[in-house]
């Protein structure tokens, strides 16, 4: 299992170029869906349908499977520690 940054080909602690801008834009899209009354579960399903093939194209099936396994470990750990809330990108 690798870290997210390693799976993305980045050094530890690094983020992809223009990450903050991309995150802000993505969060805005989520807010627009919410404002339009689109149910949250529909928005999340649409995001996954769009995201998964792009991840596989960018990182390969094995790379995505490894990232998802790493994510599962982090989710379980975060839930045991009180968890991250939606919109949080760092942990204090």
- What is the strand tally? 0
Order of helices and strands: HHH
| Broad shape | globular
Note the gap between the termini: 24 Å
Question: What's the tally of helices?
Answer: 3
Largest sheet: none
Mean pLDDT, rounded to whole units?
A: 82
Short summary of the structure?
This protein has 92 residues and is mostly helical. Helices cover 67% and strands 0% of the residues. The chain has a domain at 20-80.
Index terms:
92 residues, 0% strand, single chain, globular, mainly alpha, 67% helix
Q: Would you give an account of this structure?
A:
By secondary structure, the chain is mainly alpha-helical. The chain has helices at residues 4-7, 19-35, 40-80. The longest helix is centred in the middle third of the chain and has 41 residues, at 40-80. The chain is globular.
Protein topology:
Elements: H1 4-7, H2 19-35, H3 40-80
